[in-house]
Structures are given as C-alpha cells and as structure tokens.
Amino acid sequence: MRQIFSGLSPTVWVLMLAQCFIACTGPLIVFTGGFVGISIAPTPELATLPITAMVIGIAMFTLPFVRFVRRFGRKKGFIVAMAFGIANCFIAMQSIGTGQFWLLCLSCLLFGFPLAATLQFRFAAMESVAPEQAGKAVSTLLIAGLVAAFLGPELGLSGRYLLDAEFAGSYVLLAICLTAALIILLIYREHQTEQNEEVSKGRTLTEIARQPLFLLALTGGVCAYAVMSFIMTATPISMHVHFHHSLEQTKWVIQSHIVAMYLPSLFSGILIRKLGAVKLLISGIILMVICLIIGAWQQDFLHFWWALVLLGAGWNFMFVAATTLLPQSYEASEKLKVQGFNDFCIFSAQAIVSLSAGWVIQVAGWHTLLLLNIPLLALVVVSLFRASATLAPSMRN
C-alpha cells in the first residue's frame, strides 16, 4: 500500500479529500433522478432527463470554467463553483417539493458547474507531481469515487423521507457535503506552475487534433464515458421498472458499479507503469465487451450486478489510460485549451447518450441499448491502430 501512494504531493491528497464529498453529486442524481422523473415528468420517456441535464451542464460549463481559471486561477474557481453548488441544492429541493419537473431539470443542469470545476482536479493533481507519477496521481484522485459510490446513493435513500416531498431531503444532505468540500478547498494551494505559467496561443486545436496520439486519448476518454453513461443511466429504470427488481437491489447494483469504477484506482497507476497506458486501454475495452455479453445474456440480479461491475472497471482502465496519454499530445502553453476541449467532447458525448437512454430503453429495450455500444468501442480500436506507429515504446509496453 505504501508503494501505491508514495511520492505524491499534498495537493493530490487535498483534492482527493474534497472530491470524496463532491463526487457524490453524480451518483445521487443518477439514483434519484429517474425515480423523481417518473413521478413528475410529463411523459415516462422524459424520466431520465434530469440525469441528462446534469451531463449537459457539465459539457456546457467546461469551457467557461477553463476561461475563468485562466483569469483568476484554479483555487478561486473551485471555491466559487462549490458555493454555487450549495445554493443550487436548495433549488433542487424546491423543485421536487413543488413538483416542478422543468425546474428540477434546470437545477440538475446547474450542477454541471461544480462538476465541471472538478474536472480540473485530475490535471491539477498531475501537474503537482513528477511526470512519471502522473498516472498514479490520477488513480489516487479517482479513489474518492469509492466514498461517493456509497455516500451518493445513501444520501438519496436517507433523505428520501426527510422532507414531505420524496427525495427532496436528499439535496439538503448534498448541500452539507458540498459545504465540507468547500472548507477543504480553502487549504488547497495552487502549484507554482499554475500561477506563473505564461499562456500563449500555441498550436490551434485543428493542428493538435491531427495527431493520432491526441485522437486516441480523446476517443478513449469520450467512448469510456459514453458507454458507461449509456448503460448506467438506463439501468435503474430497466432493473426496477422493466424487470421488477427491488429498489434495494437496484441501489446495490448502482453502488457496486460506482465502486468498480474507482476501486481499480488502487492499482491502475501501477498497471500503467508495468503494462503501459495502451495495454491498460485495451484491457478496459475487453472488460466492456464482456459487460455487454453478460448484460445481454440474462437479466436477473446477478447478471445485472456482474455487467455493471465490469462496466465500472472497464471505464476506470480506459479513462485512466486516456488521461495519461493526453498530456503527451500538447505543450505546456496549450494545456488549458486542450484539457477544456477534451472534457467538453467527453461530456457532450455523455449528454447525448444520457438524453437518448430514456427513450431507447422505453422504445427499443435493454438489448438494443447494449448493442448500440459496440460501434463506440470499435471507434477506440480504430484510433488505436492509427496511433500504434507513433506510440513511444514506454506507452506500448
């Protein structure tokens, strides 16, 4: 264990601790959004729209937050984003209490601002350590998701009857968590390079995007999130409504999935050093293919559980590998531009699949939804073949 976490800067630990509280936002909205949506949405097909609105919000606020960071620095950006998130919790609570579906969707959209801010956590963590420690820093930061895996759904369940309106109290509990994150971020210290590095124009995004390595990192991250989100968003409704599994079983599958997303972070940093980012990426693709097979094979509780666990682990391997590859494609002066564009693409794709998940699961069913993920994984394989000739030996091995 000491080998796994040795050599990391205090910045990584501060960001990870704050992330423990912030990261529960997504699981809470995923767990409660569909159920609240079913009860107050105009039509069942719109039930997952609050979840989609959150993802759209992340995509929408990613580039504006990067511009804010360029001007005011990451620390101020993080603090402003957390304060905004706390206030927004009470908008969500009010929307559920009054049964206003579109106000709930707006609130979930606005949660995209604090969540977009946390996308900078992994880059801030990588920049606070030596280059060879970058993969370990990203993996360590993702461990916060283990806390969120349990805390997010538990906030949803614990707050279900806290107020008169079902699940409204869950967002009061979320406000407490975001307050804790804000307090932790007050002691965060920006790395010297974050404060002093001169930002020049550098190459255009078009020039950077011509690099096969950049395209591999981009498609790896985009498709990892898209496949994971498409299946995860549809799972609560598919399990509880279509296949009649209990709410407790549904909660356990979602919690197990989120644990599987972040538990591999205990060793994925080491795997990158031993196997290389590319082999880790390939391992993630294989796990996701197995997930699709199990999910299509049978729809009992254990098949859902295994499929979602493998989906989470596959996402982790693909995302850590893609994040580690990305900095190899840009210069220091181009980092904010490329990081912002990368995250914008990731969450735009996630927004599209989240928006379509509710419609696909209602109209076409679970099996069709699973089949639609195959072209996304194939796209990563094609990008891998294109980039293979340009990859350094250290990335391949």
Automatic annotation (TrEMBL):
- Top-rank taxon, per record: Bacteria
Key word Mitochondrion present: no
Query: What residue intervals traverse the membrane?
Result: 12-40, 46-66, 78-95, 101-125, 137-156, 168-188, 213-232, 280-298, 304-326, 367-387
Q: Which InterPro entries match?
A: MFS, MFS_dom, MFS_trans_sf
Tell me which UniProt keywords the record has, alphabetically: Membrane, Transmembrane, Transmembrane helix
Cross-referenced PROSITE patterns, in alphabetical order?
MFS
GO molecular-function terms, A-Z:
transmembrane transporter activity
Stretches assigned to the Major facilitator superfamily (MFS) profile domain: 213-397
User: Which protein are we looking at?
Assistant: MFS transporter
Provenance organism? Neptunicella marina
